[in-house]
Amino acid sequence: METPDSTSVTSSHAAYDIERIRADFPILARLVHGVPLVYLDNAASSQKPYSVIQAVDAYYREIHANVHRGAHELSIRATEAYEGARDVVADHMGAASSSEIIFVRGTTEAINLVASTWGAAHVGSGDEILLTKMEHHSNLVPWQILAERVGATVRYVDVATDGSLVMEDYDRLLTSRTRLVGVTHVSNTLGVVNPVAEIATKAHDVGAVCLVDGAQATPHMQIDVGTLGCDFYAFSGHKMLAPTGIGALWGRRELLDSMPPWQGGGEMISEVRLDGFTAAPLPHKFEAGTPHVAGAIGLAEAIRYLRRIGLDAIHAWESALTTYAMERLGEIDRLEIYGPKQNRVGVISFCYADIHAHDLATILDQKGVAIRAGHHCNQPLMEHLGVDATARASIYLYNTHSEIDVLVEALGLAAHLFGVT
Ligand SMILES: *Cc1c(COP(=O)(O)O)cnc(C)c1O
Asked: Over the stretch 302-315, which tens digit does the pLDDT of each residue have?
């Protein structure tokens, strides 16, 4: 297996070469409505560097065949590439073994997998599932479905006005009835980084397991599941430079082993008889059907790319940019930013005077500025904040200070059009 470290450069010592990084992303060179694209919708999905696009392209051009089945050259090569991608993900996440990495479509599918299999085996009538009010719908609805099916109750940890979790509320709601604690590592609306290690330790103290939604964390920080101490960690490739339709679920081996299979079909069995089947060992037990081979290869390349630049260097760049954006936006009268000032990533939600978020996004789009507007799959959180939508600008490794300036200028235009004084 090629370890990601073997390809990393000593870039943490070199200056962050933003122009070189931007040149790696072909889409950043395009115009939108005749002006340069300013892409600030990274929390919804990131753009892709050449190396990822080329890895996917080369796979289809040179080695594509179905995996795990063929004895021919292409199938062997495709299988090696697919399983090699799993090794890269496992190494990157600090997994004890590659068999703890299940390839899935993304965070949503990963959480549904756990709710359907672990949930069906371990959650029953009267049990409780403890989530937070800032969870993405994909870490809410699968548990609500499970709770309804088995007669369990879902409880929610409160969010403070500064956007942090109310830990006293967590301590209060966590009881011997709690079977699972589900928490987002980083909020996709508030940008806040949650104290996942502490949450996991406390969950274990009452005999509960802890699932972490890592969709907004993996793009920006080095994850080590051992240090976090959680039991499941879910993430999506497309938010961290990889193609859509690929992501991974990491789970502790003993838990994954104890779980019944999820979808049935090819690839997930070691034997099928007319009177039943024997499931394949991990990880294939949870990967029914032909997998997204190209996606997995793209994800491995995305991880290599992030590691070549260095997640520490990326973090430092993004932190400086986030501070700058918060300062510039903070200078605008009647613009309210949600989420904390510290302990956050560059996911910046805001409301501006009486301008609806959708109108803001439309006006900004005319200036080439791509932001998100809406509830961000966080409807319960929106209700908690007392708004029906926010505008959200989200930063990634290729954004610049001058792009923040363009955002601020475009907000000035919106203010002018809507007569905000
Ligand atoms: C995007 C996101 C998800 C869902 O990810 P998909 O790739 O759509 O499955 C879940 N949780 C958070 C925090 C997200 O930002």
From this structure: 999 999 999 999 99
Residue 184's closest CA among 148, 131, 112? Answer: 131
277, 329: one domain: no
For the chain, helix, strand, coil in percent to 5 are 45, 20, 35
Q: What is the pLDDT of residue 9?
A: 39
Pocket test for ligand 1, best of 138, 159, 216, 235 (most atoms within 8 A of CB): 138
Total structural domains in the chain? 2
Give, using CA atoms, the residue closest to atom 8 of ligand 1: 108
> Which has the closest alpha carbon to 370: 19, 23, 30?
30
Say which CATH number the domain at 333 has: 3.90.1150.10
- Closest residue to atom 12 of ligand 1, CA basis: 215
- Note whether 296 and 330 are same-domain residues: no
Per DSSP, the three-state class of 385 is helix
CB 155 within 8 A of CB 128: yes
pLDDT of residue 11: 41
Same domain, 344 and 246: no
What integer pLDDT is reported at residue 405 of this predicted model? Answer: 98
Q: Cβ distance 104 to 291 under 8 Å?
A: no
Tell whether 370 is covered by a domain.
yes
CATH code at 267? 3.40.640.10
Among 129, 159, 127, CA closest to 141:
129
Examine residue 6 and state whether it is found in any structural domain, yes or no: no
How many angstroms separate the alpha carbon of residue 188 from the centre of ligand 1?
8
Do 28 and 117 belong together in one domain?
no
Q: 164 and 292: one domain?
A: yes
Task: Mark residue 386 as left, alpha or beta (left: phi above 0; alpha: psi -120 to 50; beta: remaining).
Answer: left
For residue 10, the CA-to-ligand 1 centroid distance in Å is 31
- Of 250, 276, 307, the position where a domain reaches its end is 307
Strand-pairing partners, residue 193, are: 186
Rounded distance, CA 207 to CA 286, Å?
25
Residue 83 belongs to what domain range? 53-307
Determine the pLDDT at residue 70.
79
Judged on CB neighbours under 10 Å (0-12, 13-18, 19+), 203 is buried
Last residue of some domain: 289, 307, 325?
Answer: 307
Identify the segments of the chain with pLDDT beneath 50: 1-13
